[in-house]
Predict the 3D structure of the following.
Amino acid sequence: MYRDPVIDGGTRLLVVAPHPDDESLAAGMLIQRTLAQGGRADVLLLTDGDNNPWPQRWLERRVLIDAAARRRWGARRRREVAGALGRLGVPPDQLHALGWHDMQVTDELRLRHTAALTSVKRVIERVRPTLVVIPDLGDAHPDHGSAHVLARLALAAAGSTADILTYMVHGTERSAPDDLIVPDLDAERQATKLAAVLEHETQVALSRKRMLGVASRPERFDRPAAAPGTGLLPLPWHPGVLARRRLRIVVADGQGVVAWPWRKAPLEAVDGGWQLRLRGAPGPAFVKLTADLATPWIYDHYGWACEAPEPAGLVARTVG
């Protein structure tokens, strides 16, 4: 049974946000509660959210969006996240922005693995968090799932003993809803969180109702699934024969990242399904199934997998 994390004056919270606005939507209340207890809160922002074409077309009254326009949009969103964190009480030097491109966290993990891991590990070593909040592995947005993998690998590489919580933005958590609700009913903190979300003007321009609906819910956190780097991993996917011709299996672990065509992966057929033999690397291991095809569809069809124990709920509590 997991122990609920204690939030007090010794808490050093690190929130990993794939995009500007994730920090406020996922953990705006938790950030405030940590600061109110005398703790510290930092935010690791992976991308500038620069690939967000429809709000940009609407607000800038343009159809074509080139590289310069995306850079301008990313700079605007970076200013918005700074404003949101100001509302929440996080000083500017506690925002650690890597400046990656929106929708490319998976590429950073796979194609520039050493540099990406080093960048995240450097922030972890600087902040020395006791509590880390990261996207859920099952989040359907590819940047979120890959952010989970990258954060877990970096935490392991840094030798961090921080407690880890996960948040879901695009999907449903593994644990029961009643086990995920954080008991923070402070009306003033809720109002401040909504104000922080509204600082992200580019995002509420077309999605105000949805954004405020998400922000008004109690914040929900889960525990990450175990991800051993050894043994056989049962795969949750059952692709057909034709699909397997195009699919690749990606493994991210303590040795780095490797991608095999399905037919060359160390797979074993078992009871109508498949098991993958992991490489025995130190730390956690994660597996992804992908066709590596360009598509206008944002969300990840297959996503990432790891060894999953029975779900365990979590409630974060404030001391005193």
